[in-house]
Amino acid sequence: MKESISQQWTERLNQVIPWGSSTCSKAPQLVPEEPGVIVRGERCRVWDADGKEYIDFRNGLGPITLGYQFPAVDEAIRAQLANGIIFGHPHPLECEVAEMLCAQIPCAEQARFLKTGGEALAATIRIARFYTGRDHIIQIGYNGWVNSLAAGGAQLPGQRSATVPGVPQALSSLHHAAQWNDLEEVERLFNEYTGQIAAVVIAADYAAIAQGETFYPALRELTRKEGSLLIFDEIVTGFRIALGGVQEYFNVVPDLAVFSKGMANGMPIAAYVGAKEVMAACDKGGTVISSTFGGETLSLAAAKSCLTVYSNQDVVRHLWLQGERMWGGLQDIFAEFGVPIEIRGFWPCPAFSVGSGADGSILQQFFRLAYKHGVSLYNVSYVNFSHQTADIDEALGRLRGACAEMEGGRNSV
């Protein structure tokens, strides 16, 4: 079988880039069915180097919330490009987007910008340590590679490690991993490190996110009692579960929060936001957090346009409704063909999991066949604003074919 152009790119990438990509989760694992590279996207579809089309639910691993080449956002980028990308002083967009975030996010009295979610979370951890005068951090979920410091914590999404390669033990010992919805473990850590916990940083378990209804309020009460800060990692949930993220959805206001993937339809930007008193910790005379590219205007222009579309066109409602059509429909197909895969969580960002007692490889087998049939999926998959009913129904038809092929393969064994 002749090697595809995409596979040739994979070989070239592996020669010059560790992992074959600068983003671990983007490196293809299911070749030859999975595309080695994607060269173009439009609305809710992408094309690989061989010209094969996929209905896409990876969405750049989350940032594409409106769709590829979304006109309003692309026009805003082009208009700003004509006036310059970055300057030696603040640009009005920096103020305007911060004002929009403060109007939309419950905890946000002030906002500041960086380029990636993990970087912004690192900023909130530094703020928490300065503000509280404490050193220890409790982390729940995956908070990005730069903050994956706790032994036993998530080193990548869904991947835990007893050790943290490349991190000195002295630093790792200040970070403590706790599991989602395990309040008892969080309380144990507070008791073990009495008066030493600066903050609890939490990213939702997307499959079990409904448990946040009780877990988030319990953490809010506990951190207030202990004099620690509560930091919400809203990199995935922000502008997706609700405009203001899980804090709006569950009506629990943290001290600090980070938003990123949903902010600018793919342009690189992150915001760390919070109460004015707490954010003062990184003001003049406080801890220094500074980046030349924090006020880069193309991403800010994209964010302003994106946030305007969210507000004016009820994007979040679309993500819930079309997510239900897509993932509820796929769950029905799994049941029809007896495929032991479950889709759990909220419709805008559900997670795939393998049913109890099933072979764990079944999920990878399904993803491989999904690629073969022209649908791009990930462990946490998303609809975007450009997924219309016809796109969803076409994707479900393609995935029905994938499940039928799986059934045929099992029956022939």
Derived structural class: alpha/beta
Alpha carbon gap, first and last residue? 24 Å
Extract low-pLDDT stretches: none
CATH fold label of the largest domain: Aspartate Aminotransferase, domain 2
Number of strands: 15
Assigned CATH class of the largest domain: Alpha Beta
Please give the count of helices: 13
Order of helices and strands: HEEEHHEHEEEHEHEHEHEEHHHEEHEH
Largest sheet: 7 strands, mixed
Indicate the proportion of strand residues.
Answer: 15-25%
Spatial sequence of strands, sheet with the most strands:
4-12-11-10-9-5-8
Named CATH architecture of the largest domain: 3-Layer(aba) Sandwich
**What is the radius of gyration computed over CA atoms, rounded to a whole number of angstroms?**
22 Å
> Which range best describes the helical content: under 10%, 10-25%, 25-40%, 40-55%, 55-70% or over 70%?
25-40%
CATH superfamily of the largest domain: Type I PLP-dependent aspartate aminotransferase-like (Major domain)
Mean pLDDT: 95
Question: Main traits of this protein?
Answer:
413 residues; alpha/beta; Aspartate Aminotransferase, domain 1; Aspartate Aminotransferase, domain 2; 2 domains; four-stranded mixed β-sheet; 15 strands; 40% helix; 15% strand
Q: Gist?
A:
The chain is an alpha/beta fold and 413 residues long.
What is this structure's SSE topology?
Elements: H1 5-16, E1 38-42, E2 45-48, E3 53-56, H2 71-81, H3 92-104, E4 110-114, H4 117-132, E5 136-140, E6 154-156, E7 159-160, H5 169-172, E8 175-178, H6 183-192, E9 197-203, H7 212-226, E10 229-233, H8 245-249, E11 256-259, E12 270-274, H9 276-279, H10 297-313, H11 315-337, E13 341-344, E14 351-354, H12 362-372, E15 375-376, H13 389-411
Parallel strand pairs: 3-15, 5-8, 5-9, 9-10, 10-11
Antiparallel strand pairs: 1-2, 2-3, 4-12, 6-7, 11-12, 13-14
Helix pairs in contact: 2-10, 3-10, 6-7, 11-13, 12-13
